[in-house]
Each structure stands twice: as structure tokens, then as C-alpha cells.
Design brief:
heterodimer, A: 576 residues, alpha/beta, eight-stranded mixed beta sheet, 23 helices, elongated, B: alpha+beta, 3 helices, 4 strands, globular
Chain lengths: 576, 100
């Protein structure tokens, strides 16, 4: 058994838990010495009764009829009791299946079929087998498990056996079973079960309904591979993803994220309460893109274009840019990749590009793109809308340093003009998703209005903190002001996530704050949908997401937003 | 049952119902339908619009064998003193309006 082996099935309750496996084996208990296996083929021809002697006498027939009627009465009473018991533990919806069982037991067709078989001289056990087999053929797969359960109950009662006693399972058991029939769930101490995994069954199977109503993580319909899992091993049951991980130690969500290179999480991580969270990468070079893909990034949340300008000795042509964007899309053919348009200025001085007056307030980002660098901006947008039309990939574009609704609308206006011009020229183009960075305090003030207009928001915490706290990001003497836990920062992020939620657009965080695994719960609690992080941090952040309880994080974040000081925030974050 | 006779006591009632319960005529509504059919003094039969022969509504096997899904229409055919009442009750079950 390989550690960390993953078995896929259908996840039926959105929970995740770990526990120790134990096979549930009522099938074996129900098969008594000399008894007939429920799945044994049985014909409808009259066959001989036990001992090889035909049981055709009137006396025997009367006796067998009486046995059947007594068994049916007892089965009916048991079904009623099971219904009450399950209603008490799992609720009326889950228990309603026993109403159906009661109606099947009293079904005139079924009773008549048994009586016909008895009249032909069969013993009661065999008559029940034959009649229920025919009934299963009649109603089809949907109720096969219920009818088999009823047959099993009738046969057990006919054989004079008591109902199975609930197995004495230790708390934290993950129950493995071929399938769990309604009467099986009554024979389990549901309160002690950590999870359920079955070979057969689907979403509408009884076990699935019970698991959902009790919030027990469950994965059903895993198939043959589940049979290889022995009793007594540790497994994680991820109902959200429909996956059972055998011996999950090595890819534990609690690992510190340093040693996860062996088996990176390639799929999006989900919180313990099953919120899927994208962990995308920040990148600007081909090497970074490769690393991001290897580390299982869910796309690119921030592609910096400045490198394209730095690497070239001359200004890149439209063709250079187009090529770069297409290869970016190729690196993540199935994910969203977001390109940030040119952001020069402040510390990012690019020789071939006009860079404003220098320093944090010297003009940068969209301000320059709509002003002196308009020609370059248009060139970049032409390449982007053409790349958006390339097959595969899902391209997003966002503008840096937006400080007003006007900034955003003008920038998008240029994009649409470029799009229309190229379309007129007969060039293949497509409109990418258009979003905006939220990295100026001004943008957080008009976050509602921006969220109404943009298709997504992306919070750049590095610049946001610099401008909120009036402390240049490269000024080491002001390092203590660059604190992601400061109440002003949290409130600015909170304003933005609240605006995004109201407008129903996704919101990402792409600053350094997102790449710190210890801050992931806080950001998720604030309502962030995507964390875009340095490629090397993808796995650590995914692991942090996987151990976060989203509901709890939201409650803590709500209090953190109201906290007056950095210390008060830090104390709350300790709880996460 | 003569004490039940009044204006609404037509002996034969037919009604087409769209199955509105989630997942169609699954265990719970099917069991309820059969229970209601048995509780009333009349013969109730159920026939899928696309199907051929009506089946007796007091048989769980017969009702579940129809395999009626959500959004499908079925015809209720009741004959007897409580025909009107049983059709009313069953229609409420099948449209999801039955509080039970």
C-alpha cells in the first residue's frame, strides 16, 4: 500500500475528516450456515424444500404461510422501530426510507408472489427469495438496494435471528462497506463515525442521504480499488472532492509546507468546510511560469509585463508581446491567467519606457499608460486581445494603480477601441476578462463602483500598504509600518472584499500578504476567493487553505476588522 | 361511506399532475402516495402520460416501477366514494405541497 494513495469516488457530503478504517460486514453475518446467499441465482420454477423432500402437503403449506405472515409482522415492527431510531439520530428525511420499506412489505403484488410460490410447495425462505428477485427485476436498480434489504430482514427473521447489534466501533472510525443499506445505518453508532467510504452506491443511495443529514464525510461508488484497503489504516475522507486518501501522513494539510515537493497538490485546495480556493501564481518570466506549473498553481493571478520590456534591448514589438502572451496561455491551458498592463514608475524604471517623475508619488501604472505611454499601452492591448482569441486558455487583463472609476473606464475604453479597430481590420480578436487592481487607498474608497464595472478585483497589498501607511516600501526605517495585520490594512481589504461580494465578482490578493501561509485563514475569512503567490509558496499556501475552517475564519476576520490595534488583530489571528 | 356523499363526491375523478418533488417519485413520496391510496375508500390507479397501462396505486412495487422523474406528468385515475379526496391528497404529495 503506497502512502498517500488516492481513491476517487463520488463525494456526497461536503465535509472532510480522518479516521481509522473498519470494514462493515453485515453481508457475512447475514449468510448463515446452510442459508442461501442473497445474491445466489434462484429460478422461478418450483423447487424442493429442505431435505430434498417436496413440501407439497396441505399441512406444510399452511405452516409455511403462517411462518411467512409471522415474519412479515415482525419485519414490519422492526422497520417501524428502525424508522424511529434513525429519525432520532439522522432526521425525518433520512428515516423516510423505512416508510418505503413498510409499503414494500405490505405490497399486495409482493405478498401474492410469495403466496404463489408457497402454493407451489416452496419453503418460506425460498418463496421470499423468488418473489423479491422478481420484484427487483420489475422495479429496476433504483430500489434494488431497498428490496435486498427487505429480503435480508425477512430471511433473518425466518431463521429466528435477532437484528444485528450495533458494532462497538471506536470513535473516529471510517466505515468501509460494499454498500450501506438502510438497516445497516441503524446498526451503526452514527455518532462515532468519522467517515464513510463505499464500493458501490451513488448520491441518492441511502448511505449518502444519511451522511449528508449528519454531516459525515462520505465518498461512495469508489469501486474495486477500495477493497484493497485493510482494516486499521489511517485514511482521510474528503467528501468535497470525492477522494479517499490512504495513509495521508505525507500529504497532511498540517505539514509545514517545506517538504511537499514529492506530491504537490495539483487540484485547487478546499477548506475543511469545502470552500474551493484558487491558489494562483505571480510570475513575470518563463522560468517562473514553469515553476508555477510544476508546483500546481491554479493559473496565474498576476503576470507582470515589465520583464518583457526589461529583457529587450529595444521596445518590444506587438509581435514580441503577442508571442509572449500566447506562450503564457500555453503554460496554463485550462486556467485563468491574468496579465497586468505595464506598471512602471516608483522603483520600476525601465530604460525604454517613460517612467514618470520617480518615487512612489511620481506617477505610475495606468496614469502613465493613459498619458505619456499611451502608444505602448495600445500596443500591449492589441497583443492581448489577439492572444485572447488564440485557442485555449482564459485570459484576463487588469490595470495597475487605478485610483478612480474614470481611470478604469478610460483604460477599458482604450481596450475596446483597440478591439474594434483590429476587428475592422479582420484580425482575430477576443475580449479578455477585464479587471482592476485595488492597490491605492483611493480605489478602496470607490471599491463598490469599481466592482460594479470590473469583472474581477485584485488587491495588491504591497502598494496598498505603502500608500495607506505613508511609508515607502523600500524604506527600511519604516519597516514596522509595513504590517499586514494593521487595522487600516485589514479594513481596506475588507472594504474591497465586501464590494466584490456585493457585486458578485471574484476578488484575489496578489501581494506578499497572500504568500504568507499563516495569513491565508485571515484572508479567506475576509472573503478573498483567490490567493496569488510566488511560485515557490503555492504548495505551502494550498496546505494552509486545506487546514482552514472557512466558517470559523470568517467569524474571526469579522472581529479582526473591528479590532483597534495591531496587537488586538494579532491576538485574534492566533486563534486561526 | 354514504355519509361522505356530497357535491364533490364524484365517483370517478381523473387528474394530470406534474411531479414537482426533487428527484421525482423516489422512496418518500412513493411511500406516501401508496399510504394515501390505501387510506381512502376507492381504487386509485396511476398512469405515466407516456406509458401504457395504469398501475394500482396501492402497490409500492407498481408505483416505483414507473420510474417517474421530476418534471414528468402522470395521470391519476380514481374510482370510488373518496375519489375526489384521494386525488387531492396525492396531488399535494406529488407537487411537493404535502407538508408531511
Amino acid at each position: 500500500m503506497t502512502s498517500g494513495r488516492r481513491l476517487s469516488g463520488e463525494g456526497v457530503s461536503p465535509e472532510r475528516a480522518r479516521g481509522t478504517t473498519c470494514w462493515f460486514a453485515t453481508e457475512k453475518r447475514a449468510t448463515l450456515p446452510g442459508g442461501e446467499r442473497a445474491d445466489q441465482p434462484t429460478g422461478t420454477q418450483p423447487t424442493v424444500a429442505a431435505g430434498g423432500q417436496p413440501s407439497t402437503g396441505d399441512v406444510e403449506r399452511t405452516t409455511e404461510r403462517a411462518r411467512f405472515e409471522r415474519a412479515r409482522a415482525q419485519a414490519r415492527a422492526e422497520v417501524r422501530a428502525d424508522r424511529e431510531q434513525l429519525a432520532a439520530t439522522a432526521g425525518a428525511d433520512a428515516a423516510a426510507v423505512f416508510d418505503a420499506h413498510a409499503q414494500f412489505l405490505d405490497d399486495p403484488e409482493l405478498v401474492a408472489a410469495v403466496e404463489d410460490a408457497l402454493d407451489l410447495g416452496l419453503v418460506a425462505e425460498h418463496a421470499v427469495q423468488v418473489a423479491v428477485d422478481d420484484a427487483i427485476t420489475e422495479v429496476g436498480d433504483r430500489y434494488a438496494a431497498d428490496l435486498q434489504d427487505i429480503r435480508r430482514r425477512l430471511l433473518r427473521v425466518l431463521r429466528g435471528r435477532d437484528p444485528p447489534v450495533p458494532a462497538d466501533l471506536p470513535t473516529g472510525t471510517v466505515v468501509l462497506a460494499e454498500r450501506l443499506r438502510p438497516s445497516d445505518t441503524v446498526a451503526l453508532d452514527l455518532g462515532r463515525i468519522a467517515g464513510i467510504a463505499t464500493v458501490a452506491g451513488g448520491r441518492t443511495a441511502h448511505a449518502s442521504i444519511v451522511a449528508r443529514s449528519l454531516g459525515i464525510p462520505a465518498v461512495v461508488g469508489i469501486g474495486e480499488s477500495l477493497r484493497d484497503v485493510p482494516d486499521g489504516v489511517e485514511v482521510q475522507v474528503a467528501g468535497c472532492e470525492g477522494v479517499v486518501v490512504v495513509d495521508p501522513e505525507e500529504r497532511a494539510g498540517t505539514s509545514d509546507g517545506e517538504d511537499e515537493a514529492e506530491q504537490p497538490r495539483l487540484e485547487p485546495a478546499t477548506t475543511t468546510d469545502c470552500q474551493a480556493v484558487r491558489v494562483a501564481a505571480n510570475a513575470g518570466t518563463t522560468t517562473e511560469l514553469e515553476t508555477a506549473a510544476e508546483r500546481g498553481a491554479d493559473g496565474v493571478g498576476l503576470f507582470r509585463t515589465e520583464m518583457l520590456f526589461l529583457q529587450a534591448e529595444r521596445r518590444p514589438t506587438e509581435a514580441d508581446l503577442y508571442e509572449a502572451y500566447v506562450s503564457l496561455l500555453d503554460a496554463f491551458p485550462d486556467e485563468r491567467v491574468v496579465v497586468r498592463t505595464l506598471d512602471v514608475g516608483d522603483d520600476k524604471v525601465v530604460p525604454a519606457v517613460r517612467s514618470g517623475g520617480g518615487g512612489p508619488l511620481g506617477g505610475r501604472g495606468i496614469q502613465l499608460s493613459l498619458g505619456p505611454n499611451r502608444d505602448l499601452f495600445e500596443r500591449q492591448l492589441r497583443a492581448l486581445v489577439r492572444a485572447a482569441a488564440a485557442p485555449g486558455g482564459d485570459l484576463g487583463v487588469m490595470f495597475p494603480m487605478v485610483a478612480s472609476v474614470e481611470d478604469f473606464e478610460q483604460a477599458r475604453g482604450v481596450l475596446r477601441t483597440v478591439l474594434a479597430e483590429l476587428a475592422d481590420e479582420g484580425v482575430a480578436v477576443d475580449e479578455p476578462a477585464v479587471g482592476t487592481m485595488v492597490e491605492t487607498p483611493a480605489a478602496t474608497m470607490v471599491a463598490d463602483e469599481l466592482a460594479d464595472r470590473a469583472e474581477f478585483l485584485s488587491v495588491g497589498t504591497n502598494d496598498l500598504i505603502q500608500y495607506l501607511m505613508a511609508a515607502a516600501r523600500d524604506d527600511e526605517s519604516a519597516a514596522d509600518r509595513h504590517d499586514p495585520l494593521g487595522p487600516p490594512v485589514l479594513r481596506a481589504v475588507d472594504r474591497t472584499t465586501a464590494a466584490a461580494e456585493r457585486a458578485d465578482v471574484p476578488v484575489s490578493v496578489c501581494g506578499e500578504m497572500a504568500g504568507d501561509p499563516s495569513l491565508a485563514p485571515l484572508l479567506l475569512g475576509l472573503g478573498v476567493d483567490e490567493l496569488s503567490v510566488p511560485p515557490g509558496a503555492v504548495q505551502a499556501v494550498k496546505n494552509a487553505v486545506a487546514t482552514t475552517d472557512h466558517g470559523n475564519a470568517a467569524a474571526v476576520a469579522e472581529r479582526a476588522v473591528d479590532a483597534p490595534t495591531r496587537e488586538a488583530v494579532a491576538e485574534l489571528v492566533e486563534e486561526l | 361511506m354514504t355519509d361522505h356523499l356530497d357535491a364533490s363526491d364524484a365517483r370517478t375523478v381523473e387528474r394530470v399532475v406534474v411531479v414537482g418533488v426533487d428527484g421525482g417519485l423516489h422512496a418518500r413520496p412513493a411511500a406516501r402516495l401508496v399510504e394515501q391510496a390505501r387510506a381512502h375508500d376507492c381504487e386509485l390507479r396511476v398512469r405515466p402520460i407516456a406509458g401504457d397501462e395504469p398501475v394500482p396505486a396501492d402497490s409500492m412495487l407498481a408505483v416505483t416501477s414507473l420510474g417517474v422523474g421530476a418534471g414528468e406528468r402522470i395521470r391519476l385515475l380514481a374510482d370510488g366514494p373518496e375519489a375526489y379526496a384521494v386525488v387531492q391528497a396525492v396531488a399535494a404529495t406529488l407537487t411537493g405541497g404535502d407538508p408531511e
